[in-house]
UniProtKB/TrEMBL annotation:
Residue stretches making up the Enoyl reductase (ER) domain: 12-323
InterPro entries from the UniProt entry: Acrylyl-CoA_reductase_AcuI, ADH-like_C, ADH-like_N, ER, GroES-like_sf, NAD(P)-bd_dom_sf, Zn-ADH-like_protein
Database matches in Pfam families: ADH_N, ADH_zinc_N
Protein name: Oxidoreductase
Gene3D superfamilies xrefs: Medium-chain alcohol dehydrogenases, catalytic domain, NAD(P)-binding Rossmann-like Domain
An example Gene Ontology molecular-function term: acryloyl-CoA reductase (NADPH) activity
Taxonomic superkingdom: Bacteria
């Protein structure tokens, strides 16, 4: 038996509890992993508190990230004892995820744990850090370099935002962080932000184009913030859009695209193809400063995850929460 967070729905009411589960209940898959660490992402918090639309079938073990040790494998690539990680692919949404002592999943969803990273560090990075790296790669695909000019990153106090600041600063970019929490000033500076601006920097003014201030941007908020970001990047700039912490809408005109040649690149970490995944994780393992990474992390046991979830949605958690499963 092992402990698992379990999301159930009965009569339209969603509940999440810690349960004892037997291995026979695990879903189909060719590799069984003893999970040592997972993490809490915004999506996990949504799943645990609201169920739909993140959870697509019940009962569901949440957790879009996992790290652990292979205990049984019918995939020739993996042997018992191998250290592995997995993020996305439907974990915690349509397939039981990482917030449990054991997981069973298709071997093609796994990656060997990148060299040099502990399981705790890998989950500290998790989907948030992986997504931040995909955003940085999107800016690079758009032709941006540190010489292009400053990059704006919002949701700076959260997981993706903090990871993006850290990665960009390490690559030599001038990073402008946007946060709704002025009390995080010292923390954001320590991650590498050169300038820290309040959230209303990205409030709409009603103009189709704003003063061009940034070479590029990474947006985790969506809605007005993303629209204003697109309207205020310089000619030829790129914006990577990955989140919806501020809503799903996008109240935008075509002006930034047809008058400034702005590129808006969507980022999906869940179905990211394996070669790009491996490239992103190799860069994360190589480029992230372990001391700065550590300053973003706090640890919690599995049982505490339920209480932390609403605080994530309220925007009260700083950085990344690593869940110690075993
Ligand atoms: P976190 O909760 O860690 O961070 C989100 C941050 O956004 C908060 O800390 C806060 O930062 C800011 N924020 C929260 N609510 C609002 C609001 N109403 N208006 C403006 N800013 C707000 O979440 P994650 O970093 O894990 O995820 C961020 C977003 O990215 C989520 O929407 C998530 O679903 C999405 N995401 C998408 C992925 C993909 O594959 N496309 C993968 C991973 C995440 P501050 O207080 O500093 O302003």
């Amino acid at each position: 038996m092992f402990e698992a967070l379990m999301i159930r729905r009965a009569d339209g009411v969603v509940t999440t509890r810690l349960e004892q589960v037997g291995p026979d209940a695990l879903p189909e898959g060719d590799v069984t992993v003893q999970v040592s660490h997972s993490s809490l992402n915004y999506k996990d918090a949504l799943a645990m508190t609201r169920g739909a639309p993140v959870v697509r079938r019940f009962p569901m073990v949440p957790g879009i990230d996992l790290a652990g040790r292979v205990v049984q494998s019918h995939d020739p690539v993996y042997q018992p004892g191998d250290q592995v990680i997995a993020t996305g692919w439907g974990l915690g949404e349509s397939h039981w995820g990482g917030l449990a002592g054991m997981a069973r999943l298709p071997g093609r969803w796994l990656l060997p744990r990148p060299g040099g990273l502990s399981a705790r560090q890998a989950m500290g990075i998790g989907t948030a850090g992986f997504t931040a790296m995909l955003c940085v790669m999107a800016l690079e695909d758009g032709g941006l370099t540190p010489a292009s000019g400053p990059i704006i990153v919002n949701g700076a106090g959260g997981g993706v935002g903090g990871m993006a600041i850290m990665l960009l600063a390490q690559l030599g970019y001038e990073v402008v962080a946007v946060t709704g929490r002025p009390q995080l000033h010292a923390y954001l500076t320590s991650l590498g932000a050169a300038e820290i601006l309040p959230r209303d920097t990205l409030s709409p003014t009603g103009k189709a184009l704003e003063t061009a201030r940034w070479a590029g941007g990474i947006d985790v908020v969506g809605n007005d913030a993303l629209a204003t970001m697109c309207a205020s990047v310089m000619h030829g700039g790129t914006v990577a859009a990955c989140g919806l912490a501020g809503g799903m809408n996008l109240p935008l005109t075509v002006a930034p695209f047809i008058l400034r040649n702005v590129r808006l690149q969507g980022i999906d970490s869940v179905m990211c193809p394996r070669p790009r995944r491996m490239a992103a994780w190799a860069r994360l393992a190589r480029d992230l400063d372990p001391t700065r990474l550590d300053s973003m992390l706090h640890d919690a046991p599995l049982a505490d995850a339920i209480g932390i979830a609403p605080r994530i949605l309220a925007g009260h958690i700083r950085g990344r929460t690593v869940i110690t499963v075993a």
